[in-house]
Amino acid sequence: MIVELGHFALVLALAVALYQTFVPLYGAARNDMRLMEMAAPAAIVQFFLVAFSFAALVHAYVNSDFSVLNVFQNSHSAKPFLYKITGAWANHEGSMLLWVLVMAAFTLAIAVFSGNLPASLKARVLGVQGAISSAFLLYINTVSSPFVRIPESRVPLEGQGMNPLLQDPALAMHPPMLYAGYVGFSVAFAFAIAALLEGKVDSAWARWVRPWTLAAWTFLTAGIALGSWWAYYELGWGGWWFWDPVENASFMPWLAGTALLHSAIVVEKRNALKTWTILLALITFSLSLVGMFLVRSGVLSSVHAFAVDPERGTFILAILAFFIGGSLFLYAIRAHALKLEGSFEPVSREGSLVLNNVLLSAATAAVFIGTLFPLAYEAVTGGGKITVGAPYFNLTFGILIIPLLLILPLGPLLAWKRGKLKAALSRLKVSALVAAVVAILASLLAGASIKAALGVGVGTWVLVGALQEWAGRVMLFRAPLKVALSRISSMPGHLWAMTLAHAGVGLIVLGAVISTAWKSEAINAMQPGQKVEIAGFEVLYKGDRQATGPNYLAEQSLFEIYRNGEKIAEEISEKRTFLGSRSMPTTEVALLHYPLGDLYIAIGDKTQMGRTVRIYFEPMIYLLWLGALMMVFGGFIGLMDRRFRVGVAERTDSRIAAQPAE
Amino acid sequence: MTRKQQRTMLILGALAFLGIAAGLILYALRDTLVFFYTPSEVSEKLAEKQLAPGARLRLGGLVEKGSVKLLDDGEIRFVITDTAREVPVTFKGILPDLFREGQGVVAEGRLQPDGSFVADTVLAKHDEKYMPREVADALKEKGLWQHVQNEQGAANGNDAARAAAAAASSPY
Fold it and tell me: Which of residues 80-99 of B touch A (CB under 8 A)?
């Protein structure tokens, strides 16, 4: 019964979403206040309908109701409780419902928290949001319903089980975070469409868009980091980024969203780059849709590609074509209506942000081309298959991102409108010196190659540069400690966000370079009693044993780790085979954390030659997660900033205006 | 500078930059692309001189039953077949989990003048049901799909579609 109610709520939600699309947009065009005011209540009703529908699906999962086809195909009664809940979105139909739920939640947030938006802008934003929701609700209701029942006479007693790779705490949170990111960019998209319809973009517009973009960016950053962390410890490959199409699908909107985050600042502060920012907002959400299409349509091969159903693929493609094509068309005919922009010199804060945007866009394009080239090639040659692998991405992305990293510490030190490069550079003398020393030490003491030494130098430059900018801002060491402390405590959230995020980038660069350049690996077929030496450790393979978990059987291998002849740890690395028809075994890596890095032991199959054991030493790989954490944390602090609260958008902030570097 | 000059500068600068970026992308694409062929395609392309020994490529098909041999020096030999043609492969290293005779595999490496293939990477499918998409497509084209499905004992018709979903070439 609950399942049917959920289904019914979903159909109602579609009707409400259509209402939310047409009535306010028509009202805004006719300047009819009564119609425009229908948007917010519709958004609220739509959210509760979708939320109820989602709850009904989770209910079916928690109660292992195998009369629902979706539950039967993706669940198992012996699954731990957490995965019964997360199982609801670890499949195609459920994940699409989650997408719509997140969409509805963002729409609700706009409806509730934007009391001071001009009525027509608010109506149009909610209308566009409604249109996107409608498209996906239509998709779910017609070709991808999670509520299909199995006829009563054939209801199975047990389900087929959930993909065991996905039964993991980090991955339980990964899709909701990622979707909050993808879908969050729809707000910027809706604001951009609304601005094009209104023919007006000003700094107030940017002030409304910035917090939504920052929220989406923060969630997407967290989602990508969780996914990467999971890939690191769960897949047993000992890497954290593979340039896999699925990773690229989430990375492209992230890159474009990062560019948007920066260009929106210019619109707010200087009333410049308006048309470009609008275009970026359209592109960012378009890339979110492209990413979803790539992942969900099954054109790419991956665990994420649940659906290999041409009907669904075509449907999503149609949604894609409508929103991307439609928005770009609107841009083409309306962008000229936006007023001319403020001017600035090439060397200025704006100039550095433009360069940031150019480089990020080029990097996005490089990733985009590399990801889609195999698809295009297959289509053009009628089935020819090629692979664009990591070497392509490392080369193009690497070359495009290095200049961005080099200018990163400089930008915040340049003044708006006209900056002095020499003065900014001289303020960064310390950073340059530290970076050079670290790079030289890395190559002399740790035997780094030139590439690795440069990488470490660039990472240090970004990290120390961000900290130096912060120190200069709070006048650390230059004013009495008391003054500095009071400046620290009164520093506004958006500046903390910048410092944390920029320092996080530095840490990620350091983590990426160090963990790649100094990684050691030993892949061997080992017999019990055999020892392998790696990075100053000795790993002794003791033997195997069996174990059982709540819904899996485990094959465990025991290892003892020695350093300088002394035993320092005992570890178990295992392979799990789960109940249900999906017999793919999963790896549970033995991970030991040391100050210099992680020791990583993954076991493979047993052959005549012995047990396949992969041992890696991943130096300082934790810097990656630490950096990502700082970016996410910075994002949240930025969202706390009073200036970003919608209620104060109109007020000028005298404290900020008084600062020269602003 | 006037506003117009600034704009022109900006646009020209961005265009020049985009040109460089496009060049870089094309260069990288040309040098890092790897083609995927089945054994039949390899012999076809060799005959048509579209493929020369030494070329780097991905070879996909089934591991022929009874063909896997372990040599004393750790070298592994097996045969990749699409049931029409076969290519002998040598590989030194650790085979991936789920590398099984009679099942789908992708080997990346170089073609030798004698028609054999030296692989430096071997990728196998992830689980009993999944198969590299390229291999699944190639087998479907040859009408062998059902045959493989039956051998794997996957009776569920839905699985045929699912099987095509995951490729060993992806870490996922």
Answer: 93-99
